[in-house]
Amino acid sequence: MNKITGVDFSDMNLTDYGETSRERPFDDILDVLGPMSFVEPVSAAEAERYRGRVPDGLLEFWRRSGRGALLQGFAWLCDPALLQPVVEEVFAGDPEYDAADFTCYLYDYEGTIEAWGAKNQRCTIDLTAFDQAKVHVHGPGPLRDLQQGSRTPDFHVANFLRILGYRLGHDMHEDYSDYHMFTSASNRLGRLEPGEIFGFFPSRQMGGEGYPEDMQKVGVVEHLLFHTQLDRPTLIGWEPIPGGGGFSRPFPIRKLGPQLD
Predict the structure, then answer these.
(1) At residue 160, what are phi and psi to the nearest 5 degrees?
(2) Torsion of CA 52, 58, 62, 63, to 10 degrees
(3) Coiled-coil intervals in this record (predicted)?
């Protein structure tokens, strides 16, 4: 029997590693999160194909460090082409958004996608959420920052990557936290390989309870395409919380896809 290789974060500081630099936000990402694994180099020609589609700082990071698994497979910097079929299904027939406007650069261990668009900037695609598939599209408009008023695209993406460690370590001793779900599945099934995620069986949108023991290794593209067939994703917007000190809360807008007159 092959030995299962799990994950171990016991020697890492996941919750307190300082603020992201405004001037050089990508510089210390691997110092904070540890070395990438399954690294694929990115050529200058390939990086140039995405010029104007993702922030320049991310392209420079690709060229310098490559793409691969962060935090032992908790999240993956990926070739945008990998998840394009999923994005095409998500936005198929929508009168407002076009799949060609979004470039995927990261997915996490459950298959939540982070994409970028020149017009709308941040886009989060969560097709395996408990109650319904959800898509958050930020723009158009500036990226808000509670300290500086707005964020540059480089700072936003780099900061998102850096705080993956905080997200993993947050509530790490609580059941059903990201830490508990990811480490439980990894230590039972082995570390994720490129193109894999942990999927729930049955799906949480088909009555599954979402226990760690319900997770299995699956192909990220196939699993997410399956979930696009269950229902059209709901477009989520954000509105200010009255008296919330600048914070916002999500609210459903409409289903993505063709609209009935």
Answers:
(1) -60, -45
(2) 70
(3) none
DSSP, collapsed to helix, strand or coil, labels residue 180 as helix
Residue 137, Cβ density class (10 Å: 0-12 exposed, 13-18 middle, ≥19 buried): buried
Q: Angle 134-85-154 (CA atoms, 0-180°, nearest 5)?
A: 65
The pLDDT value given to residue 121: 87
- Cα–Cα distance for residue pair 117/5, rounded to 1 Å: 37
**Token pair for 97:** 């958004």
19, 32 Cβ separation under 8 angstroms: no
The full set of domain ranges for the chain reads 29-169+228-255
Give the tens place of pLDDT for each residue, 207-241. 888 999 999 999 999 999 999 999 999 999 888 88
Mean pLDDT of 71-78: 98
| Tens-digit pLDDT profile for residues 86-142 | 999 999 999 999 999 999 999 999 999 999 998 888 999 999 998 889 999 987 766
* Whole-angstrom distance, CA of residue 212 vs CA of residue 188: 10
1 pLDDT tier (thresholds 50, 70, 90): very low
- Tokens describing residue 6: 């799990």
Does pLDDT of 145 surpass 80?
no
Here the tokens at position 110 are 């459950």
Helix, strand, coil % over all residues of the chain, rounded to 5: 30, 25, 45
| Residues facing residue 106 across a β-bridge | 77, 114
Helices 153-162 and 56-65: angle between axes, nearest 10 degrees: 50
What does the alpha-carbon distance between residue 258 and residue 261 come to, in Å, rounded to a whole number? 10
Report yes or no: 113 and 97 within 8 Å, Cβ to Cβ: no
